[in-house]
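Deviations from the work plan: none for this task. Representative record:
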Amino acid sequence: MYTTELHKAAKSVDSIEDPDKLAAFEARVAADEFIEPKDWMPEAYRRTLTRQISQHAHSEIVGMLPEGNWIARAPSLRRKAILLAKVQDEAGHGLYLYSAAETLGTSRQEMIEALHSGKAKYSTIFNYPTLTWADIGAIGWLVDGAAIMNQVPLQRTSYGPYARAMVRVCKEESFHQRQGYEIMMHLAAGTAEQKRMAQDALNRWWWPSLMMFGPPDDNSPNSAQSMRWRIKRDTNDELRQKFVDITVPQAEAIGLVVPDPDLRWNEAKGGYDFGEIDWDEFYAVVKGEGPVAKERMKARRDAWEKNAWVREAADAYAAKHDRKARAA
Amino acid sequence: MNDWPLWEVFVRAKGGMSHRHVGSVHAPDAGIAIRHARDTYTRRMEGVSLWVVPSASITASDPAEDGPMFDPAADKVYRHPTFYNIPDDIKHI
């Protein structure tokens, strides 16, 4: 899963910082060197990365909810085991990312509180509901496909702990997309009703998936700074175009139709032209007006609060063993 | 006489890579452990960063119990991308 940097431009580099250190830092990043936790870094770099990595972590965690909705209703034991494994991976990815963000000096507790209070953002894609089993196929194929497209270049991002987390995530993410496409493939080759279900899921997830790449380049205030800092390695529109070019033939191969009347191959540019994205919808969802945004946050907070006893029991267990060890 | 405590040594070979365990040193404190580690393990430009951790602080899993510990992953082949049959003509997936 992936999250888009959505905040307004981070304040440009603070003038109070040591110009020599700043110049040395910029030069290292420009030379594609990695920045590690104990290295000096500008405050704005630290702030932007903390926000980006924690948003990414939150997206992994919230991303479990739409799929969790279908674990108990998966159509076979095979599908159920696969979906469980995938959701378990998302939890793991969230943990890798929280750890990477913690190396910048913000605790996991603070990040989780920011998510639960509504202060922190996560990917807009998870504020759409999963209405049918085909949605699980569409999420794996499209949402994880878009996430992979975003995450592959982040394996070379300038911040070492983030880059290393991305290497693990990308390696594990590959099965997510394949299991999703396999679901769609089977439905598309099934009964007329199953095929309709697959098409309906594609219809609903196509545009939100394109929105995952974030606002268009001419309206993406952070892009220039983030590209310069190698926090981002390709622009939103470049990645979106790449996603469309790769995904359209995958849909055609199984007889599904991408829901865009303006979609056509453009021989001159060697890619597809596609229709206008509804950015009003995107910004509404960013602001928390997605169809199930409130439900998602309530589920998160409930999970945290109602399961507090598990954390307390673990603490009590540790304290008991500590006492025993001292007594021995 | 008691020997100095043991420290586990980790070296980052170059920027962007993880620190990897290379061995251990004896030293009376963390600062000296870093210097011993430098002289013992990085005499030929093997690294750009060192970590030392008191060996006594490491909790290890029991190798005799590796079955119960790791076997549960063995029958979950669906965690691997190759488990899924996607026709060859479908690209980039």
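Residues 60 and 113 of chain A are 16 Å apart (CA to CA).
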